[in-house]
Specification:
By secondary structure, the protein is an alpha+beta fold. It is built from eight helices and 15 strands. Strands 4-3-5-6-7-8-9-10 form an eight-stranded mixed sheet, sandwiched between helices. It has a five-stranded mixed sheet with strand order 12-11-13-15-14, with helices on both faces. Helix 1 packs antiparallel against helix 3 and helix 6 runs parallel beside helix 7. The radius of gyration is 18 Å and the shape is globular.
């Protein structure tokens, strides 16, 4: 299908409206909600499914030409242009009452993310981006921090299996590296608004839902992506994303 700006903007606004409509309900049960385990042993609550089902229903009704792919309920409709949704990113944090959960969605068109939403419902912080038009937090433009110099750079590593190697390599470049305690959406937004300087994600275990919305917002906030696989666009699963200085230093070093 041909996708125009009004469709992108209007469908993004609908996603925002639905995410925000669940805020009070999610806050009521935050830290006190039952859960089950999926086949991959990851937790799921009735609220993961509830948010996703309403979003699917309303998007497909308002935009029948678009498709939908949710982490909990799978895909429906158009496979070339669709909303990719993680209804509650950080379900484990949501269950335990840890302040790292978000609602996330990305509009994918021909393999590229063209719009994204990350909603921090705990703090009512809304992050949005349209491809080529910048990234915003509650309507105010945000950017990665480009003022820090080598020796003052802080990196999160989503990759745990080879963390020791990553920490040692980045230490050689005078970067501090740690394993994050949050969830993907929370971590990417810390990069997008300049609180951290880079994210290492070399783990194939994370799905498209975990990466696509946050990566796009970071890129629109000025982050650079350094790929470590042969995939393109939304399908990339191994990469480092960070400020221009971070990615330049890592790429030129050849240490990772």
């Amino acid at each position: 299908m041909k996708l125009d700006d009004p469709q992108i903007i209007t469908s993004q606004a609908l996603v925002v409206t639905i995410f925000k409509s669940f805020r009070e309900e999610l806050l009521t049960v935050f830290g006190n909600v039952e859960h089950t385990r999926k086949s991959d042993a990851s937790p799921v609550t009735i609220y993961d499914v509830k948010v996703e089902e309403l979003l699917k229903q309303e998007l497909l009704k308002a935009f029948p030409e678009m498709g939908f792919e949710g982490e909990e309920t799978g895909s429906s409709g158009n496979k070339e242009t669709y909303w990719l949704v993680d209804p509650i990113d950080g379900t484990s944090s949501f269950i335990r009452g840890l302040p790292f959960s978000t609602n996330m969605a990305a509009l994918v068109h021909e393999g590229e993310v063209v719009a994204a939403v990350v909603y921090d419902f705990l703090n009512d912080h809304l992050y949005t981006a349209l491809r080529g038009k910048g990234a915003y937090k509650n309507g105010e433009k945000i950017q990665v921090n480009t003022n820090r110099e080598q020796g003052d750079l802080f990196i999160y590593s989503m990759t745990r299996t080879s963390f020791g190697h990553i920490q040692e390599a980045l230490g050689t470049l005078r970067m501090r590296t740690m394993l994050p305690v949050g969830a993907s959406g929370h971590e990417y937004m810390m990069l997008a608004e300049g609180k951290i300087d880079g994210i290492v994600n070399l783990n194939r275990g994370k799905g498209l839902h975990d990466n696509a919305p946050g990566v796009m917002i970071c890129e629109e906030a000025g982050a650079m992506l350094l790929p470590y696989d042969d995939e393109k666009g939304v399908y990339r699963s191994q990469f480092i994303i960070g400020t221009p200085l971070v990615t330049e230093l890592i790429e030129h070093s050849g240490l990772i």
